[in-house]
Amino acid sequence: MPTQEIILAGVTAFVITALLGPLMIPVLKKLTHLPVIVDPSHATGISWMVKPMALAATAAGADGLMIEVHNDPKRALCDGAQSLTPEAFRDVMEGVRAVLPHAWHMPKEGV
Question: What is the pTM of this model?
Answer without folding.
Answer: 0.80
